[in-house]
Design goal:
The complex is a heterodimer. Chain A is of the alpha/beta class. Chain A is 65% helix and 10% strand. Chain A has three domains: 173 residues, ABC transporter type 1, transmembrane domain (ABC transporter transmembrane region fold, Up-down Bundle); 114 residues; 209 residues, Rossmann fold (3-Layer(aba) Sandwich). The N terminus and C terminus of chain A are likely disordered. Classes of the chains: A alpha/beta, B alpha/beta.
Chain lengths: 610, 608
């Protein structure tokens, strides 16, 4: 996971701000029942918290001072009952709001994941993976916190402050004014502090990511660091980062340490005032001793709701920014989707034709210009030509990862825009240049081609692909875990599995981007064999690099600058002595030299050489 | 073994840190800030005293001031004293928090720097074995656990114990019996909360694990988006994600249920204790055993006796985790570093580059030699080509030259002096390495080219090197030229481009000895020609070791060494090797056959 991605870097991509609260309510609405229960719980808890102080006043004034044991027992019974009610209240709010937080997190992630599946390839090629990851993980986290604990904590705080104020006014309004007037000052100071603390806290988290990234890089590149004796310079660079981390982290800690004492200092003033004015009142018998004690308790406790309120407020602003980003992702419209009227198909078997197809990404230069060609059913087409010439784009268009900006593509007699998008894609088998596997077993990865395949079918596909031999040699055979992204297997092995996967899918059209990286000779042979299995009887498009692949094709198209430069059989193109001739002789020499690899081997890090 | 390398914190040697007792080691970790930490503890005690003082004062105020009906100066004085106590408490809490966080932040910052430097000085062998993720975790999140321990948990434990001791004493002074009754529940609460937080901590780990699974799931889905689309497996992917997401929801619910039961139940238990003690105290007032003021004092103190105990359970569990983290860091710290400067021979200027291997053997693991009895020699400026299949020992051989590893037996002579007599730092300054696909750092291209240069170079020199390495045009093609960032957030260079950056770097470094990997598996022909030309420039007048993949490099080599299973099976020039039977000639024959096959094919096409 790309943990080091700075989640704020792309904040400016969020444009629409309106209606975020309305939409947040939309997220919250299905949970209104559990929210109401939690709110009921927290309001009871909070109000009773305030009432305790009042109750203790009554115990002093009504029982202890007049020495009335009956009232004392009565009041303590109420005390006990309140404790039980409070416990129920605590259970209710923790239980319901906790579940609500978890559920909202779950739902948001589900919605985002589902939506991401419908977005087109163009979205993923222009949006960094780390950005999307941050939306789905940390932003949903902040949203669900706001919509659950944020609401509960602020409700607790507000209820507590309000009920305490009411009780104080009931006891004595003149003393109550002293406390109530000091409240805005405390709230103001608390907010200022909390915002600063949160600001530095977030900065320290960013500094921490940078520090971890630097450390990661230094460990990964330690060979170069050692060879070039960069140790001292790197330490100096790292110290800059760790100092930045220290500065923000220490500042946040310092402010946190200062925060509550500052509020206490303000309350110390009102405490002194209360003690003095209240003392006078007691001596004049205007209020009881219990009342004075109650006021002092109220002031000393009001710290906590103020703290909570300020914290929720400081975090809320970022949670709203997170929500906006999440909503903007959900609002992204897929660039490619089905038309309204679809022609039902069961097979894509038939001729493929490009008619005056042009294409450009976004607003850039066209990468495909007025391309026209036809491929009869069952033929194999080799696409060759320089990097950036447009080979990959042709394949992307054929798979309908992108759609032509001009002209049309027809498969089996119809414009392919009239077919169901997913039908097309599932009928076209694709083997990519860099094979991508998913964590899980070898078997699961092959089964990806056809989910209902039997064990026999899976093994048959592996056999046809030439993958069965290495699989059975693995410690756990088909149950072997391939690791994250398949990284426990070699490139060649991943390629063989991806061929088996494509074979199992039994596609009507086969598309392959041949790997340029060299694998050992034996694996290479197996891959070639597997490819021939896939090409047999299917219309195939191969972005070809290997001579044997190229020569096996029915037709070779040299793609250059978005157009077909040359097209024809191997012999006819060789005769032209043009671009193909040039490419072929170059590649010939290259393969000749790399064929020495079985002799010279690859350069390996010593870890693998052991 | 005298250490002369300039190290970041000389007073902070590892030997001083290690102790059998982790808490002692942690204390040593704070070296230089220990006084601050003692200060933090002292202020902690003051704040605890002040807090108890507030309630004692209130009780006395009720009894002595209000009870006696004093309303004049005494009342004003009492109000001021009361405010003063609250201020003192606030101030000492601040001082304690400030000093503790200063200690924690400063010590961990130093620990971070130290670890960073230590890790980059660990031996090559260590890094070859170690897992990056694991090392990273130790140096980042484990250090952070220590920071939190010093800043919050250690202080928190101290705070709760101090509060308990002081408040208990204060209550005992009011009435011993009352004090005894008030703490009946404390041991039970403590044990139960420790047990609870242990279980909670496990449940939380399970939850975090599932979060990681979910993240990996998402990441694989995003990076494999083409595969998902190609097989139209969106529904399947959603199902898989749903399964993981639901499992996380389930674990979250479990965690939440634990919370929702523990807090109200422990609330009730603590409250029951409070009601009981309170009730008894109230009757004592009525019976005249204690005063009303004492009841008010008692009521205030009691809360600070019972409730914090629940948190003590949490802090104790956290502490045990912090000690585990510290243990993991200690393991790294105790691994010895490789000495860069230790030497018995310090030549003036550069080496000439004359190299002799004298019956050299090398093994990574005992009795499993990867090089066995290797002997050869080359003159300064010669080109040595190394041939052989994977695992035959070529890489191990070149790793011996910069002393990434030291020979197991035999010796290597450089300009007639044993390689082990040179310092590693000096040797590495004399050797340039160009790998097949070099690691580039996420800084600008210019910084990558000048990476490792010990002197400043001008932009003109950088560009000159880049031109010679045939990478200048590529760089100027980027919008920001030499200031273009490389890596995750910048441009991605192809393997061939990276290699040329490394060649430019080697040209600037101007080493006497060069180690090259000349394979180019993923570049087109034009680039290959450029790289070859650049490499030829680079090799001029340097002793060069080539891990050879190309006929050209072999043909022009002064010495070809053919390796098989750690032995040199053939050596000589191209002509010499071709003249004798052996692997070399066999392979060469195959190539010439291929060559003539191409010619035949071209002829055939012409005839058609």
């Amino acid at each position: 996971m790309s943990t080091y991605y700075d989640e704020n870097e792309l904040e400016d991509t969020v444009t629409q701000k309106s209606g975020v609260f309305r939409r947040l309510w939309g997220v919250l609405k299905p949970h209104y029942k559990s929210l109401l229960l939690a709110l009921a719980g927290i309001i009871i808890v909070s109000a009773l918290d305030s009432y305790f102080t009042l109750l203790f006043k009554r115990i002093i004034d009504e029982a202890i001072v007049p020495k009335n044991r009956v009232v004392l027992t009565q009041l303590y019974t109420i005390y006990g009952a309140i404790v039980i009610m409070q416990a129920l209240g605590v259970f209710a709010f923790v239980y319901f709001v906790g579940r609500q937080a978890e559920s909202i997190r779950y739902e948001l992630r589900k919605a985002l994941f589902t939506h991401l599946q419908s977005l087109s390839l163009s979205y993923f090629s222009r949006t960094p993976l780390g950005w999307i990851m941050a939306r789905v993980t940390s932003d949903t986290e902040r949203m669900s916190e706001l919509l659950s604990w944020g609401i509960i904590d602020s409700t607790w705080a507000i209820t507590n402050i309000l009920t305490a104020s009411v009780f104080m006014f009931i006891i004595n309004s003149r003393l109550a004014w002293i406390v109530v007037l000091s409240l805005p000052v405390m709230v103001y100071v608390a907010l200022k502090f909390r915002k600063r603390i949160y600001y530095h806290y977030r900065r320290s988290r960013k500094a921490n990511s940078k520090m971890t990234a630097a450390l990661n890089e230094n460990i990964t590149g330690v060979r170069v660091v050692k060879a070039l004796r960069r140790e001292n310079k790197n330490l100096d660079n790292f110290k800059v980062l760790s100092t930045a981390m220290f500065n923000s982290s220490y500042r946040a800690a310092f402010l946190s340490a200062l925060f509550l004492p500052s509020i206490q200092t303000i309350s110390a003033i009102s405490l002194g005032l209360i003690l003095w004015r209240g003392g006078l009142m007691v001596s004049e018998s205007a209020i009881s001793i219990g009342s004075l004690q109650a006021f002092i308790s109220y002031i000393m406790m009001i710290l906590w709701p103020i703290n909570d309120l300020a914290r929720v407020y400081a975090e809320m602003q970022n949670a709203i920014a997170s929500s906006e980003r999440v909503f903007s992702l959900l609002d992204t419209v897929p660039a490619i989707s089905n038309r309204e009227q679809l022609i039902p198909i069961t097979s894509l078997s038939g001729d493929v034709a490009f008619n005056h197809v042009s294409f450009h990404y976004d607003d850039n230069e066209p990468v495909i210009r007025d391309l026209t060609f036809q491929v009869p059913r069952g033929q194999t087409i080799a696409l060759v030509g320089p990097t950036g010439g447009g080979k990959t784009t042709i394949v992307n268009l054929l798979c309908r990862f992108y759609e032509p900006t001009e002209g049309d593509i027809s498969i089996a007699g119809h414009n392919y825009l009239d077919y169901d998008l997913r039908q097309i894609q599932s009928r076209i088998g694709v083997v990519l240049q860099t094979p991508h596997l998913f964590s899980g077993s070898v078997r699961e990865n092959i089964r990806y081609g056809r989910l209902d395949a039997t064990e026999e079918q899976i093994q048959e596909a592996a056999r046809l692909a030439g993958a069965d031999q290495f699989i059975t040699n693995l410690e756990h055979g088909y149950d072997q875990d391939v690791g994250e992204g398949g990284n426990l297997l070699s490139v060649g092995q991943k390629q063989l599995i991806s061929i088996a996967r494509a074979l199992l899918a039994e596609p009507d059209i086969f598309v392959m981007d041949e790997a340029t990286s060299s694998v050992d000779t034996l694996t290479e042979e197996l891959i070639q064999k597997g490819m021939r299995q896939l090409m047999a009887g299917r219309t195939s498009f191969i972005i070809a690099h290997r001579l044997s692949t190229i020569k096996h094709a029915d037709r070779i198209m040299v793609i250059s600058a978005g157009q077909i430069a040359e097209s024809g059989s191997h012999e006819s193109l060789m005769k032209l002595k043009g671009a193909y001739y040039h490419l072929y002789t170059q590649q010939y020499r290259h393969e000749l030299e790399t064929s020495m690899d079985q002799f010279t081997g690859d350069y390996h890090a010593p870890a693998q050489a052991t | 073994m005298a250490k002369t390398t300039k190290r970041p914190y000389p007073e902070y040697a590892i030997s001083q840190l290690t102790s059998k007792h982790k808490l002692v080691s942690l204390w040593r970790l704070m070296k230089g800030y220990q006084l601050h930490y003692i200060g933090a503890t002292a202020f902690l005690a003051i704040s605890a005293f002040a807090r108890s003082g507030i309630y004692i004062f209130l009780g006395k105020f009720v009894d002595d001031v209000l009870g006696a009906g004093l309303v004049g100066r005494e009342l004003v004085l009492a109000a001021l004293q009361f405010s003063g106590l609250v201020l003192l408490q606030a101030l000492s809490i601040f001082m304690s928090g400030w000093l503790a966080s200063f200690t924690a932040e400063s010590s961990t910052r130093r620990l971070r720097d130290y670890l960073f430097d230590h890790i980059q000085h660990l031996s090559y062998a260590y890094h070859a074995e170690a897992k990056t993720g694991d090392l990273l975790e130790r140096a980042s999140s484990d250090v952070d656990t220590i920071r939190r321990f010093l800043a919050d948990q250690a202080i928190g434990v101290g705070r709760i114990i101090l509060l308990f001791a002081i408040n208990f004493t204060a209550i005992a002074r009011i009435n011993l019996q009352l004090a005894g009754i008030s703490v009946v529940i404390v041991p039970i609460v403590l044990v139960v909360s420790i047990l609870f937080f242990q279980r909670l901590s496990k449940a939380y780990e399970a939850y975090q694990e599932q979060e990681a699974v979910l993240s990996t799931n998402l990441q694989e889905n995003l990076s494999g988006v083409r595969v998902v689309k190609a097989f139209a497996r969106q529904a399947y992917e959603m199902e898989k994600y749903e399964k993981n997401n639901l499992e996380k929801l389930r674990r979250g619910y479990k965690l939440n249920t634990m919370h929702s039961l523990f807090w109200p139940i422990s609330d009730m238990v603590c409250a029951a204790q409070q009601i009981a003690s309170n009730f008894i105290a109230a009757t004592m007032v009525m019976d005249g055993v204690i005063t009303l003021g004492s009841l008010i004092t008692f009521n205030g103190l009691l809360g600070w006796l019972i409730w914090p105990i629940r948190n003590l359970g949490r802090l104790i569990v956290d502490t045990s985790r912090a000690l585990v983290s510290f243990g993991r860091i200690s393991q790294v710290l105790q691994t010895p570093e490789e000495d860069l400067t230790e030497c018995t021979y310090q030549p003036e200027g550069s080496v000439r580059g004359e190299i002799r291997f004298d019956n050299v053997s090398f093994e990574y693991e005992k009795d499993r030699p990867v090089l066995d009895g290797v002997s050869f020699e080359c003159k300064a400026g010669q080109v040595v080509a190394l041939l052989g299949s994977t695992g035959s020992g070529k890489t191990s051989l070149v790793n011996l030259l910069p002393r990434f590893y030291d020979v197991t037996s035999g010796r290597i002579l450089l300009d007639g002096t044993n390689l082990n007599d040179y310092s590693r730092a000096y040797l590495r300054s004399q050797i340039g390495i160009v790998e097949q696909e070099p690691f580039l750092f996420s800084c600008t291209i210019r910084d990558n080219i000048t990476y490792g240069l010990q002197t400043e170079v001008s932009q003109a020199e950088v560009e000159q090197a880049a031109r010679e390495a045939a990478i200048h045009d590529v760089i100027t093609g980027f919008a920001e030229g030499y200031d273009t960032m490389v890596g995750e957030r910048g441009v991605t260079l192809s393997g061939g481009q990276k290699q040329r950056v490394a060649i430019a770097r080697a040209l600037l470094l101007n080493p006497r000895i060069l180690i090259l990997d000349d394979s180019t598996s993923s570049v087109d022909m034009e680039t290959e020609v450029q790289i070859r030309t650049a490499l030829e420039k680079l090799m001029v007048a340097r002793t060069t070791f080539i891990i050879a993949h190309r006929v050209q490099s072999i043909l022009s080599a002064d010495l070809i060494l053919v390796f098989d299973q750690g032995h040199i099976v053939q050596s000589g020039t191209h002509e010499q090797l071709l003249a004798q039977p052996g692997i070399y000639r066999q392979i060469y024959d195959i190539q010439t056959r291929i060559d003539s096959a191409l010619q035949e094919e071209l002829d055939r096409v012409d005839l058609l």
